[in-house]
Amino acid sequence: MKKWRVVLSNADRKKIKMVLRSKRLSLETKKRAQILQDLDETGKDKPAPITEVMRKRGVSQNVVINARRRFDEQGVNAAIFRKKRTTPPITPKVTGEVEAHIIACACSAPPEGFSRWSMQMIADKIVLNGVIDSISDETVRLVLKKHNLGRT
Q1: Lowest-confidence range among 9-18, 80-89, 92-101, 108-117?
Q2: Are residues 45 and 105 in the same domain?
Q3: Residues 101, 76: one domain?
Q4: Is residue 38 part of a domain?
Q5: pLDDT for 36-56, tens place per residue?
Q6: What pTM value is reported for the model?
Q7: Could you tell me where the DSSP H helices lie in the chain?
């Protein structure tokens, strides 16, 4: 097993202190900064053992090992902060074009025999027009609510 080392520079220590003083950052972020402080080998005979850091910070062994590995491989920012997701996990089904069709349908005259559009009727019309493969009445409701439009 490769041993990852945590040797903090003065700039790294300053960054960790700023993180710990911040009121806007999450508890998990602050715990990772505290873990790096505990594992720092600068000026010590031996760094704190993983089991002691786990007990002191109330985290699992994997959290401590991952923080140490990320610091050694990528630096202090990667060890403290989570990586931002570049794309959403699922691409949205309703795009601006679909929203425009929903709004146009909702603002048009209702079908003959009805006084106003229901959410299900709008959803069915959008699917029949070939704008989208399938859509629920709840999604239609949320789109109309987003644009402050009720049933007309």
Answers
A1: 80-89
A2: no
A3: no
A4: yes
A5: 999 998 876 677 889 999 999
A6: 0.59
A7: 10-21, 27-39, 50-57, 61-74, 76-80, 96-107, 119-128, 137-146
